[in-house]
């Protein structure tokens, strides 16, 4: 059985190519499998978010190929790429990006409406997701009625609603206090362990790095280290 989720070959993203080229991503190779809990780390400007955007089809590489579940997304037309993202990729952003006029339930359900999922299945999936994030009693609240940590948990449920191949999380704990961040990470780690949900993080947060099973370091658009990580109970990271 092929467990490969993402295969990126020789991808580069270049700005100002005709004057002074700046390589946000420089000839990167990346292979990710089902069930990974991977952190992309590095200093500001290292290319973490750009790489996440390329993998997520929010941006296109200037060279190379990105293959997701057997589909080369770099060859898709704009409308095909939108449809592919809808059915295959979940996103969690640091600013939550919930729709303010919708309830928490409606925010999670929205992507399934776009997928044309039938009402009965939507209802079942929404209830399941809110149980998993521990917010069954907040389903009818609007984002303004939720704390930052609660909003981010709803954002995770929304990312999972489409049953994606993987979830991309860009600095998901950046706007959370320690208690909310650890709560969020507990939920995502549980989903990863119990449901084999694949998570790929872009992060500066040591709390996320300490939970990761794999840590990929980028510097100046290049991967400089790729290590398996074993978190200890005291949250100290060991790399092998």
From TrEMBL:
Keyword terms of this UniProt record: ATP-binding, Nucleotide-binding, Transport
Domain ABC transporter: from-to ranges: 6-240
Presence of keyword Acetylation: no
GO cellular component terms, A-Z: membrane protein complex; plasma membrane
SUPFAM superfamilies: P-loop containing nucleoside triphosphate hydrolases
Organism: Niastella caeni
Protein's recorded name: ABC transporter ATP-binding protein
Family statement drawn from the similarity comment of this UniProt entry: Belongs to the ABC transporter superfamily. Macrolide exporter (TC 3.A.1.122) family.
Record PROSITE patterns: ABC_TRANSPORTER_1, ABC_TRANSPORTER_2
InterPro entries xrefs: AAA+_ATPase, ABC_transporter-like_ATP-bd, ABC_transporter-like_CS, ABC_transpr_LolD-like, MacB-like_ATP-bd, P-loop_NTPase
Presence of the UniProt keyword ATP-binding in the record: yes
Matches recorded under Pfam families: ABC_tran
GO molecular function: ATP binding; ATP hydrolysis activity; transmembrane transporter activity
């Amino acid at each position: 059985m092929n467990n490969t989720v993402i295969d990126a070959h020789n991808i580069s993203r270049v700005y100002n190519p005709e004057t002074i080229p700046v390589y946000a991503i420089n000839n990167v190779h990346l292979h990710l499998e089902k069930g990974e809990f991977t952190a992309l780390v590095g200093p500001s400007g290292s290319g973490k978010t750009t790489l996440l955007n390329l993998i997520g089809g929010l941006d296109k590489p200037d060279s190379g190929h990105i293959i997701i579940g057997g589909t080369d997304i770099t060859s898709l037309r704009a409308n095909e790429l939108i449809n592919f993202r809808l059915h295959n990729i979940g996103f969690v952003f640091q600013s939550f990006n919930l729709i303010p006029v919708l309830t928490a339930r409606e925010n999670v359900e929205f992507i399934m409406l776009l997928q044309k999922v039938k009402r009965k299945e939507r209802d079942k999936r929404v209830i399941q997701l809110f149980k998993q994030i521990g917010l069954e009693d907040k389903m009818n609240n609007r984002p303004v009625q939720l704390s930052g940590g609660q909003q981010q948990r709803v954002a995770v449920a929304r990312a999972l609603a489409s049953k994606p191949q993987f979830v991309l999380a860009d600095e998901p704990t950046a706007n959370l206090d320690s208690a909310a961040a650890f709560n969020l990470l507990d939920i995502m780690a549980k989903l990863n362990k119990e449901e084999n949900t694949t998570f790929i993080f872009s992060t500066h947060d040591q709390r996320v790095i300490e939970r990761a099973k794999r840590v990929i370091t980028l510097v100046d658009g290049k991967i400089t280290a790729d290590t398996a990580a074993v978190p200890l109970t005291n949250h100290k990271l060991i790399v092998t």
